[in-house]
Specification:
Length: about 475
């Protein structure tokens, strides 16, 4: 397949044209949320940009299979395997079981995604579903001499690799050797950067979820889950692996170390990392106490899609500073844009030639290191262009398959609410008419009203409390 889709590959430190392992197909993996708390809008910046990447690849003609894990065990307070399990922390905070916490915050995460028009990946797999796969990979790593048992835990031996710091330049590598001096010492580790594949003894006392393994009852480390879950669903070769920049080290570095040692060949070719969302005091994080969620934005009266547009207006490789002033400006711009689009007349013929020209402009923008702000500029330029309304509307509908900003009038929140309100008053009127008909024993009329509503996708149910209705 002829292709020009390119983005910055953290591994090679260059903007590269994507050449997938299998022509026309992309195997893509996203590090999913640790479900011990609500996602903050910083986490969601990463998921929004990864969503646009997936949709842009599909727009460019690729068949994409995207897999995401749900971290419901093994992610400790510090990414360097110290502190308590984040899930346990959540359970203690809310006096619930770990599995209750996992279910609640997994649902909350997907609800936030729905509000932000983030598509659910093709496969979503919780870590606790894959314990046998983790154990198998750890056994192989031990058998190949890449891992060792110490103090009851299994560790990956980073000294076995020629190049552990794969994401860093030579000068950075020298600095990185001492980078984790401040981390709480684990006397079992042979080398400073060795990481835990399976925990038994340490952190064991109050760990809620534990499984039997060849090394004793325990639980998996955080990094092993992404290697196993991606291989389970995407096989031995992956094209694109995504995450926030904080995942580069140690998480993605460790994923590469264990995956390539296990496979014996290169694993994932392209690494896509999204820069952080910051607030005035620095990186947004859950450990800071109060943090910004989608629900909080909604409580303050913002349409979540405005936050999506805020993210799309900035390049994914640049840090983005959040402020309510900036969101207010975005909100006003969004309303104006949607209104302009709503004024277009959906009639006449599509100009096929112009359609192809503008589609190419949009594709150029998203294919060029995911230049989403340029893609939005294409929408503004299109609105000003001298072509007919029908063509403009068709194009905007097409672009919105990638942008997912509810740009055409029928998709906006206000328009949906208006339609829902209209529908509700119509249905209530019909229910009244039907009750009156029943009272007069005109059952034929009552049935006809029920049938008329059903044709419009509305189902009536007679209950003791009265008639209720719902969309079929
Ligand atoms: P977590 O739920 O903590 O495992 O994080 C989920 C995703 O959000 C990961 O890909 C992180 O790299 C990413 N992330 C964390 N903090 C931020 C932030 N402030 N801005 C953007 N992405 C973030
Ligand atoms: Zn991961």
């Amino acid at each position: 397949m002829e292709n020009k889709f390119r983005f910055y590959n953290t591994l090679t430190r260059e903007v590269e044209t994507i050449i997938p392992h299998e022509d026309g197909k992309i195997a893509m993996y996203t590090c999913g949320p640790t479900v011990y708390h609500f996602a903050h809008i910083g986490n969601l910046r990463s998921y929004i940009m990864e969503d646009v990447l997936e949709k842009a690849l599909r727009y460019a003609g690729y068949e994409v299979k995207r897999v995401m894990n749900i971290t419901d065990v093994g992610h400790l307070s510090s990414d360097a395997d110290t502190g308590e399990d984040k899930m346990l922390k959540g359970a203690k905070r809310e006096h619930k079981t770990v599995m209750e916490i996992a279910k609640f915050y997994t649902d909350a995460f997907f609800e936030d995604c729905r509000k932000l028009n983030i598509k659910t990946p093709d496969v979503v797999e919780p870590a606790t579903n894959c314990i046998p796969e983790f154990i198998h990979m750890i056994e192989e790593l031990l058998a190949k001499g890449y891992a060792y048992v110490a103090g009851g835990n299994v560790y990956f031996d980073t000294s076995k690799l020629d190049d552990y710091y794969v994401f860093s330049s030579q000068s950075e590598k020298e600095l990185l050797v001492g980078v984790r001096d401040d981390v709480e010492e684990d006397v079992n580790k042979k080398n400073k950067n060795d990481f835990v594949l399976w925990f038994t003894k340490s952190k064991f006392e109050d760990q809620a979820l534990k499984w039997d393994s060849p090394w004793g009852v325990g639980y998996p480390g955080w990094h092993i889950e992404c290697s196993c879950i991606s291989m389970k669903h995407l096989g031995e070769y992956m094209d694109i692996h995504c995450g926030g920049v904080d995942n580069i080290f140690p998480h993605h570095t460790n994923e590469i170390a264990q995956s390539e040692s296990y496979l014996g060949h290169p694993w994932c070719k392209y690494w896509f990392h999204v820069q952080h969302l910051n607030d005035k005091s620095g990186k947004m994080s859950k450990s800071k106490g109060d943090f910004l969620t989608v629900s909080l934005l909604e409580e303050k009266g913002y349409d979540p899609i405005v936050y999506r547009m805020f993210c799309l207006q900035s390049h994914y490789r640049k840090p983005l500073e959040f402020s309510y002033d900036a969101l207010d400006n975005m909100s006003a711009a969004y309303k104006k844009l949607v209104k302009k689009i709503a004024e277009l007349k959906d009639e006449g013929e599509t100009d096929k030639e112009q359609y192809a020209v503008w589609r190419e402009k949009f594709l150029d923008a998203v294919s060029n290191d995911l230049n989403t702000s340029m893609a939005i500029t294409v929408v503004y330029d299109l609105l000003k262009a001298d072509i007919n309304d029908k063509t403009k509307l068709e194009l905007i509908r097409d672009f919105d398959r990638v942008l997912s900003l509810n740009l055409t009038a029928a998709d906006t929140k206000e328009a949906k609410e208006e339609i829902d309100a209209e529908l509700e008053s119509y249905v209530l009127e019909k229910i009244k008419e039907r009750s009156a008909a029943k009272k007069e024993k005109d059952f034929a009329k009552a049935d006809a009203i029920r049938a008329e509503l059903l044709e419009k996708g509305i189902v009536l149910k007679d209950t003791r409390e009265g008639v209720i209705w719902q969309k079929a």
